[in-house]
């Protein structure tokens, strides 16, 4: 039994709209500007936690040790 062409067209239009909505969502989710802002916010929130502050302190200490070692080796 053949399908009604109008029904087929309605299904095609519905599928097209669904695909367009999905594409819009993917475009929004993968926006470089949005991802950059989201990453920046995540880093800022992490740095405000005790673990984040300890990480910054550890990196600062490591940099200080490396710089002091370089200076010592340069003067030898």
Give a description of the structure.
The protein has 76 residues and is mainly α. The chain has three helices and no strands. Keywords: Membrane, Transmembrane, Transmembrane helix. Pfam families: DUF3618. The chain crosses the membrane at residues 51-68. This is DUF3618 domain-containing protein.
Question: SSE layout and pairings?
Answer:
Elements: H1 5-29, H2 32-47, H3 50-75
Short description:
By secondary structure, the chain is mostly helical. The chain is built from 3 helices and no strands.
Characteristic terms for this protein:
76 residues, mainly alpha
DSSP summary, beta strand count? 0
- Gross morphology: rod-shaped
Structural class: mainly alpha
Sheet with the most strands, sense and barrel status: none
Order of helices and strands: HHH
Distance between the termini: 94 Å
Count of helical regions: 3
